[in-house]
Amino acid sequence: MVLLVTPIVRSTECAAALKAATGEPVVIAATLLEATTLLRTETFRAAVFDQHLLEREPQETALAFAHLGAAIPIEVNLALSGVERLVRNVQAALRRQLQEQAAARQAAALALHSDLNDALTALLLQLDSAIETSLSSEAAEKLRSAQALAEELRSQLATFATSSIESG
What residue ranges do the domains of the chain occupy? Predict the structure, then answer.
């Protein structure tokens, strides 16, 4: 959902163009106070602010920006910009958001892979060491079984990491 914050008369025209271009529902707020209320209660992908409001009401601007959550703030001078430019700016911001989210997911997957791989390596080393000590054959067999499971887990982790990198 996209929040459009502007008092201009053609706000419904802008909202319709944004909805058509992005496929996202668009909610219009005529004031920053109304926008802040909406930001507190709803989740938005983007919040498009008329630059005129931001410059005229700095305290209300700070309050609205404090409640953005995950929404991308987009500032546009609607007095000078046409609907086409507004749509291009919002589309570009939403594309950047998707790219940043994909990069963050990939980084998180790689970090998790690294952490898990380190733990598995430590586990396998401990299992090797335990197997080499003088244990009963039954205990050694159980440790070899645990070692085989850890190796299988490592293989699955490598497959997951490869598919995460390729899809990212």
Answer: 2-81, 103-167
